[in-house]
DNA sequence: GTAAACCCTGGAGTTCGCTCCAAGTCAAGA
DNA sequence: TCTTGACTTGGAGCGAACTCCAGGGTTTAC
């Protein structure tokens, strides 16, 4: 697959893909003789993983560390797992926080309704009077 | 309360508070004769609200719109509510996305365990042999 | 009344994560 | 073979949200 196809498939731009590769978010991409990237299945899976993780706000730096450990081979399994755990925990805390804020927004919206609905009823009664 | 106290209370810096006020995230802060900010209870509540919303990643622009409608009075209740609903929905979608990624990370970590635990057991057996 | 600590403003600087650009190379169709 | 369009690189630029700074004013404690 070409860079444009992969970009399209995962909803990002070729520039972002090049950037990800440049900074080390994607292990490596095979090239044609002329130097043009050709993404295989493995590479696509990496892209998909990275796009997902970035979508959840996991920092580029953490992902770079993860990828560089991956490149270093099986001796780094434990360390890689620790990065994942660290990020999972961070994300779990974030989700909790967001859920609290979500609940708060819901309440605030309810409050607005309790102000707005009586106001609307008043208008409707007015309407009844007028017609 | 002084700016430093408020900053401390909500875990931000005085600079951030001044920035929030400057761009319109906080309706107004009363000043002393000398021009020094003095946060009352109302103002603290605004700060708390804004810090919470910002903590959930709600955009500064949306909050500015909200605050400026608030300043404009009761005629803007419906519009304010709409902003809240819009942001609530955005946040809800985000939470869903994050939960999916969280589940994925959990699975990935489990996979690492299924590789690492057998390796550990091997090491432990070796330990038994040696002592 | 003065020193130290805090506050003020406007504007420049920083960080993160892309995003865009110039100048050139490569590949596929007419 | 030429043209057209996609690809390459290194590096500059950008938007969001702060963060910091210089040069000053204010408060408070002694």
What can you see in these coordinates?
2 copies of one chain form a homodimer. Chain A has helices at residues 3-10, 14-23, 41-55, 60-72, 77-130. In chain A, α1 packs across α2 and α4 (60-72) packs antiparallel against α5. The mean pLDDT of chain A is 92. The first copy, chain A, is built from 5 helices and no strands. Chain A is mostly helical and 131 residues long. The longest helix of chain A has 54 residues, at 77-130. Chain A has one domain (3-130): Orthogonal Bundle (Multidrug-efflux Transporter Regulator, Chain: A, Domain 2). The A-B interface holds A 52-53, 55-57, 77-78, 80-81, 84-85, 87-88, 91-92, 94-95, 97-99, 101-102, 104-106, 108-109, 112-113, 115-116, 119 and B 52-53, 55-57, 77-78, 80-81, 84-85, 87-88, 91-92, 94-95, 97-99, 101-102, 104-106, 108-109, 112-113, 115-116, 119. Chain A binds a DNA duplex (30 and 30 nucleotides) through α2.
Annotated CATH topology of chain A: Multidrug-efflux Transporter Regulator, Chain: A, Domain 2
- Overall geometry of chain A comes to elongated
SSE succession of chain A: HHHHH
Tell me, rounded to a whole number, the average pLDDT of chain A: 92
Query: Helix amount of chain A, in percent?
Result: over 70%
The radius of gyration over CA of chain A amounts to 25 Å
N-C termini distance of chain A: 67 Å
Structural category of chain A is mainly alpha
CATH class of chain A: Mainly Alpha
Beta-strand percentage of chain A? under 5%
Please indicate the count of domains of chain A.
1
Q: What's the β-strand tally of chain A?
A: 0
Oligomer: homodimer
**Which pair has the most extensive contact?**
A-B, 32 and 32 residues
The biggest beta sheet of chain A reads: none
Number of helices of chain A: 5
């Amino acid at each position: 697959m070409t860079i444009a196809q992969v970009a399209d498939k995962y909803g990002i731009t070729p520039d972002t893909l090049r950037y990800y590769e440049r900074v080390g978010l994607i292990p490596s991409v095979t090239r044609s003789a002329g130097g043009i990237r050709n993404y295989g299945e493995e590479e696509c899976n990496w892209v998909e993983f990275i796009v997902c993780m970035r979508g959840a706000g996991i920092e580029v730096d953490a992902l770079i560390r993860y990828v560089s450990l991956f490149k270093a081979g099986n001796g780094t399994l434990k360390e890689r797992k620790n990065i994942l755990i660290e990020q999972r925990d961070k994300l779990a805390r974030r989700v909790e926080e967001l859920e609290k804020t979500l609940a708060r927004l819901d309440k605030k919206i309810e409050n607005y309704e309790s102000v707005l609905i009586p106001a609307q009823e008043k208008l409707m009664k007015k309407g009844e009077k007028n017609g």
